[in-house]
Amino acid sequence: MRFQLLLTGNEIMSGDTVDSNSSMIAQRLLREGYWIDRKVTVGDDMQELVDEINSISKDSDVLIVNGGLGPTIDDLTAEALAQAAGVELVEHADAKHHVVTWCEGRGFTANQANLKQAILPEGVSLLDNTVGSAVGFALTLNDCLVMCTPGVPSELRAMLDNAVVPMLSTHYPVGHAPQILRYQTFGLGESGAQQMLDDAYPDWPDNIEIGFRAGAPMLEMKLRVDPSCSDEQRDHWEAKFLEVIGSYVVGRDETRLPQAIVQSLTERGQQIALAESCTGGLIASMITSVPGSSVVFEAGIVSYSNAIKQSQLGVSEQTLSQFGAVSEQCVLEMAAGVLAISNADYAVAVSGIAGPDGGTDQKPVGTVWIAWGKKGKLKAREFNYPVNRSMFQTIVSALALDLVRREILELPEEPAYFQRWTRKT
User: Fold this and answer.
1) What domains appear along the chain, each with residue ranges and CATH number?
2) Confidence (pLDDT) at 19
3) What is the model's pTM?
4) Which of 166, 165, 72 is nearest to 117 (CA)?
């Protein structure tokens, strides 16, 4: 079967709105065994929409149109589909009932603009919208099932589950969907991870595809297991996969570094404390965003000034004058200081130069020192990540969390980023 997407909207074409809906559709359908072959995006132009609907429907089994179902003049999908199919636009009684009921439930009476959403191509089937006012709809054109869906992400998500997937399973049932095994990793790039796997297993099977989705600071790696693959074969190659990249795996599915830290500390009945400078409290914010973090998060001090480093964390004046705030000696004393004033088992301390100014030849912008570990067993290391200020803080925060994650799990090997993110002198 051939599936295609048609995204519509001037706001997408101009870049004012980032297209996340196509990703949502593709991921949701993949879980059911359907693969998106192609997507096209056009603006709010009637003739372009009509031409694309006609053209794509002749080359597809399923066309999902996204956007353009609302009440305003630039919502053109219903009229475009009617023109493409050569049918009239008519008032759909069930669609009108939905719009009227939706408006009344929010304390107002549907006006003509609202009721425009009930004027649909003759003969369509409705796709229930349990969230918004605009129903979706579907009809068959050129032997292609054309399904029109709303552009509002929350409405689209609900419609995929409640209407789109059930209709697809009725029209185009699949025997078995591919299984997707998702891993969230930190510290690997796509090319580096692929090379590691190629070197270790040049005989990797064709029916277990390796995929990547990069997104700073994490890299998602996926194993797409074909239905032809037996459980034994899947388990065998998943184990091989984890042999190579296991230490970089933060967690499965949607697990990120903060969740992994909170889970690991909770399981061990331990706590963590933070001493932050260049990250400005971002590490603490990441941890405390996780439900249940109060059990493991003891304290966080944002010691941005040298005076606070001295008065609150016990960093010595001699250390600051001799080595500076961005130094091994300073972050070790910061970490020791926050452990001394808390009951935490682990500490992380960071001090760096986020930029865009403040760097020197000896300590350029992007330099950061991180200390981590337990009382009496603290480590420190310098890294260099010369990017914009916001990205620097994001990466440093993730890096600090990963270092303490590795410490908690007692992972023995040195991660590849120790070399990749170390400044060459």
Assistant:
1) 3-171 (3.40.980.10), 179-252 (3.30.70.2860), 257-420 (3.90.950.20)
2) 93
3) 0.74
4) 72
